[in-house]
Amino acid sequence: MKSSVLLTGLMAMAVIPVAATLLTKSGRHVRAAEAPASTSTPGAAWSNGLPTDPNYFPIAVWLQSPQNATKYKSAGINLYVGLWQGPTEAQLAALKASGMPVICEQNEVGLAHKADKAIVGWMHGDEPDNAQPIKDPATGKQSWGGPVPPARIVADYEKLRAADPTRPILLNLGQGVANDEWIGRGTGAHIDDYLTYVKGGDIISFDVYPVAGLKDGENRLWYVPKGIDRLKKWTEGKKRIWNCIEASRIDNEKAMASPAQVRAQVWMSLVHGSTGLIYFVHQFKPTFNEHALLDDPILLPAVTAINRQIQELAPVLNSPTIAAATVKSATEQAPIDLMAKRHGGSTYVFAVGMRNVPSRASFQVQGVGNAATVEVLGEGRTIALRNGRFEDDFKPYDVHLYRISGTAQSG
After folding, report:
1. Which end of the chain is less enclosed by CB atoms within 10 A, N or C?
2. pLDDT tens readout for residues 279-333
3. Residues 280 and 138 occupy one common structural domain
4. Contact present, 325 and 366 (Cβ < 8 Å)
5. What is the pLDDT of residue 19?
């Protein structure tokens, strides 16, 4: 996550739009919910991994001081990822005292705490797919070389797993996962490298920060779900996919994601199958602030509300995705993507506008009775449902979360 910031000066952003995967009928976009190959709770595969409680959904923050763990818990954060020059004994003690689990590097201190339930996973470096710093031995001058060879990442993963097979290993990749114009990967990099990189972890994550990091970024939020879709494809659906979310201005003094744009990126991620979120909250310009989100009077309450809603919906998000809904956008330039779930006798449809353009959407939901009602969660309103069909308006990047009671089947 950090090297993308360091490499920003190398990037030439000549963005070529990529169309969303949609069906088209009568000139209108249609998107159907896609069911994954399998669904399980976050830590089901590892005895010392993430909680297996279906009420738990991983919402992490990247590389923060343990002294702020209580503040992050109040903001709905339930996981630390990375510890600066750690883990150290003091860091682990502070996190344990605050009840904050962590995914950290597998150093000597970490391995000495294999019995410590506070460690729920191991970090496998950060952005190895980006250009790596090299130093000329003769002059001492530093420059940038190519990325870490993918085969080395896989070999190192096998070593990490052999040292502790009871915890998952998290590999975080850079924006090259989604951004084909990113030149920060350095010499010798190729898109096919990712087919090998993704074999180097149990949880595969990536980061792209559209608003703060891309030219015309406010119109590129869809890079986030694009990267998730690619990781799902490259892993053949066999790995857990996470992703990072921008929650500060990072190093952009002119633009930063608004609360609505952060919420859109979050729900684009979830709708496209991300099973864990990692907020990047550092600010590098105009001054450095490791915990910029905590000091932001506008974004902090918005992120807190987003996180609380995710946790309220965790049992639903952790349930299987079903192919029970389709959506048609009345505006060709404004596709709307959705995910459908069935849980506790209700059908849930989570929908998000994928472009910076308003539209009106028409939904068709299967398996719901004529007497069912559509509640728009968190908005204090309901929508009439007739023969499984309802409509709603979407502002640019709007998110609407629907619960339809009185469904024919229960989860």
Report:
1. C
2. 999 999 999 999 999 999 999 999 999 999 999 999 999 999 999 999 999 999 9
3. yes
4. yes
5. 33
Which residue is listed with tokens 């919906």? Answer: 313
- 153 contacts: CB under 8 Å, gap ≥ 6: 124, 125, 128, 171, 196, 197, 200
Query: Rounded CA gap, 33 and 326, in Å?
Result: 7
Which residues, other chains included, contact 31 with Cβ-Cβ below 8 Å and sequence gap of 6+? 20, 22, 23, 326, 327, 329, 335, 336, 337, 338
The Cα 17–Cα 193 span in angstroms is: 22
CA dist 301 and 375 (Å) reads 24
Strand partners, 81: 62, 103
Which CATH number characterizes residue 242's domain? 3.20.20.80
Q: Which is nearest to 293 in space by CA: 223, 245, 243, 224?
A: 245
Strands 346-353 and 336-343: antiparallel
Residues 332 and 306 occupy one common structural domain: no
pLDDT of 372 reads 76
Residues 331 and 261 both lie in one domain? no
- pLDDT of 31 reads 55
Cα–Cα distance, 292 to 154 (Å, whole number): 34
**Domain check: are 402 and 265 in the same one?**
no
Percent of the chain with pLDDT over 70: 88
User: Which one-letter DSSP state was computed for residue 183?
Assistant: -
Query: What ranges in 217-330 are assigned the alpha helix state H?
Result: 223-234, 259-271, 299-312, 314-317
d(CA 354, CA 383): 22
Amino acid at 369: G
pLDDT value of position 369: 74
SS3 call for 16: coil
Give the mean pLDDT of 175-187: 94
What was the pLDDT predicted at 44? Answer: 73
What does the pLDDT look like over 224-258, one tens digit per residue?
999 999 999 999 999 999 999 999 999 999 999 99
Q: Is residue 35 part of a domain?
A: no
Mean pLDDT of 387-410: 87
Q: Is residue 268 part of a domain?
A: yes
Domain that holds residue 373: 325-407
Do residues 301 and 339 share a domain? Answer: no
Q: What is the pTM of this model?
A: 0.91
Cα–Cα dist 345/352, whole Å? 23
Instruction: Give the whole-angstrom CA distance, residue 337 versus residue 282.
Output: 30
- Decide if 198 is inside a domain: yes
Residue 38 lies in a domain: no
